[in-house]
Specification:
mainly beta; Jelly Rolls; 6-stranded antiparallel beta sheet; 5-stranded antiparallel beta sheet; 42% strand
């Protein structure tokens, strides 16, 4: 079996830099449109019913804390373990380990609930992770909020070290 590296995937999947860190390409946008009137009030307009991206993180990079207004489903494709940190509205921290080794507490799939803060980075000593992210209602940058280090550490002081390490 051929082993690929991050550069291979970036080139062949035509990944571009993402504002939160890492690289991505949107590969699917559902044709079905959900009208604004059928969505919760925190959505500002119509949304595609579903979107999907490829997302890649390399060593020494991270996906900074952010949140979106939809659930986000994460799928593992290739590479090494990706640690996804999720802080819910009550301040509880969950570490999801996305990977292919269930005997090490990893799973090839996880869900981040809408409105929760989340960030990710590779497990120490890893080189890259290629994953997919499915969002429904579909992702729109109007629904994206980048975490502010000062505000997040005030809101969740018990996670200050993690927040400082995963914000820009």
């Amino acid at each position: 079996m051929t082993q690929h590296n991050a550069d291979y995937w970036i080139k062949h999947l035509q990944l571009q830099p993402h504002p939160e860190g890492g690289a991505y390409a949107r590969i699917y946008t559902a044709d079905l449109i959900i009208p604004r009137s059928s969505l919760p009030e925190n959505f500002s307009g119509d949304r595609n019913s579903c979107t999907h991206i490829y997302y890649l993180l390399r060593q020494n990079d991270f996906s900074a804390f952010h949140r979106i207004r939809s659930d986000e489903l994460w799928h593992f494709y290739d590479g090494d373990t990706l640690c996804i940190y999720e802080i819910n509205k009550q301040g509880e921290l969950t570490e999801h380990r996305l990977g292919k080794n269930p005997e090490n507490g990893e799973s090839p799939f996880c869900v981040i609930k809408s409105g929760n803060w989340f960030a990710s980075r590779l497990k120490t000593g890893s080189s890259y992770a290629l994953v997919g992210c499915t969002v429904s209602p579909g992702f729109d940058f109007a629904d994206f909020e980048m975490g502010d280090r000062v505000k997040l550490t005030k809101q969740y002081p018990q996670h200050k070290e993690l927040i400082v390490s995963l914000t820009r």
